Amino acid sequence: MTQLPQGKEIEILLVEDNPADVRLTQEALKEGKVHNRLHVVGDGEEAMDFLRRRGEYADEVRPDLVLLDLNLPRKDGREVLAELKDDDDLKRIPVVILTTSQAEEDILRTYNLHANCYITKPVDLDQFIKVVRSIEDFWLTVVRLPPK
């Protein structure tokens, strides 16, 4: 696992309501190359509370990267994305859409809302882990993330 300068961890916010996908993502990132800390919330309202550090998330750090499912309870991923990208304090956080939807309408809409990347979750377990590791390889080792 690559250690970042001064022991810095990459902070990742996973917005996902499916416990199986959460577990797979945790496993894939646990054995990754980059030292990271994965925060998990299960719906869009919680995601915005986390990002804005409200309520129980008041002491959380701002994530370096958001992995966002589209189909969420309470506030869906499209609404979260629109709200996040409309906020001057949050809009530079890269957002990777990680969803089961293959609908062209979703792909176009999320890119129009300034998603940084759109990935359809594979149904195959090994492929899912491979996809999460490729996200880590690209977003956490190749890309230079904006300062907080």
Structure write-up:
This protein has 148 residues and is α/β, with parallel strands linked by helices. It has a single domain, classed as Response regulator (Rossmann fold). It contains 5 helices and 5 strands. It has a 5-stranded parallel sheet, sandwiched between helices. Helix 1 packs across helix 5 and helix 2 runs parallel beside helix 3. 28% of the residues are buried. The N terminus is likely disordered.
Secondary structure layout plus pairing:
Layout: E1 10-15, H1 19-30, E2 36-41, H2 44-51, E3 65-68, H3 77-85, E4 95-99, H4 104-112, E5 117-120, H5 125-142
Parallel strand pairs: 1-2, 1-3, 3-4, 4-5
Helix pairs in contact: 1-5, 2-3
Rg value: 14 Å
Biggest sheet, in brief?
5 strands, parallel
Give the helix tally.
5
Helix-strand pattern, N to C? Answer: EHEHEHEHEH
Distance, first to last CA: 23 Å
- The low-pLDDT segments are 1-7
Number of strand elements: 5
In helices, the fraction of residues equals 25-40%
Protein structure class:
alpha/beta
CATH architecture: 3-Layer(aba) Sandwich
Shape: globular
- CATH superfamily, by name, is Response regulator
Main sheet: strand order:
2-1-3-4-5
User: What value does the average pLDDT take?
Assistant: 88
Q: Into which percentage range does the β-strand content fall?
A: 15-25%
CATH class: Alpha Beta
The fold-level CATH name is Rossmann fold
Domain count: the total is: 1
